[in-house]
Amino acid sequence: MTVAVIPARGGSKRIPRKNIKPFCGKPMIAWSIEAALASGCFDKVIVSTDDDEIAAVAQAHGAWVPFKRPVNLSDDYTGTTDVIKHAAQWLAAAGYENNYLCCLYATAPFIRAEDLRRGKGVMDASNPDYVFSATTYAFPIQRALKVDEQGLVSMFQPEHFATRSQDLTEAWHDAGQFYWGTRAAWLEKRPIFSSSARLIELPRHRVQDIDTPEDWARAEWLFKAMQAGQ
């Protein structure tokens, strides 16, 4: 059994009700649910939530909400791995055997079914602990700058001031969309970003954190531009 788990608690602070707020014509969470269903990868698409309204919206768009997430796993400090571990434990206790669980974020409208299929393909072929979406930084991180309390500028790595960009190691960052993982990796809370993980490359224009109102506006602009270009 292969399961998608979408964490979606109700207590978003910076963008209230973020998980079900309308985004380009649908509740935000609907984009992740529909991509998961369209991928054909999953026997079940579960939404883990503490919120009755989120549960109702999720079910209306085809997700399964078989449990209510405990209060102690629904605060501002609970990490993703704890939420997925809880889902894995619930599934085991309910008699559902599974090999893979894939965490999909509820606020990832750029997620695509084909990317999920690519992730599962890597899991099947190489059996890592995790496979996750990632993209490259647009600028060499070795030339990153910092500003001190007096407003003075310095480099994090001044030794690379004169190093050619093509001679610097390319850096990647988590795209914040999905994380395929083995059941054992989630239950044991193994680190996602390790030598036991693989990544699925996404283009930079399809990667956007949505944590602030400004992020939300930018994401809608990008989404609408991509739809207009299809």
TrEMBL record:
A Pfam family reported for this protein in Swiss-Prot or TrEMBL: CTP_transf_3
**Is this entry keyworded Chloroplast?**
no
CDD domains, per the entry: CMP-NeuAc_Synthase
Which SUPFAM superfamilies does the entry mention? Nucleotide-diphospho-sugar transferases
Keywords of the record, alphabetical order, are: Nucleotidyltransferase, Transferase
Record InterPro entries: CMP-NeuNAc_synthase, Cytidylyl_trans, Nucleotide-diphossugar_trans, PseF
Q: Report if keyword Transferase is assigned.
A: yes
Q: Which GO terms describe its molecular function?
A: N-acylneuraminate cytidylyltransferase activity
Q: Which NCBIfam families match?
A: PseF
Q: What is this protein called?
A: Pseudaminic acid cytidylyltransferase
State the species of origin. Idiomarina ramblicola
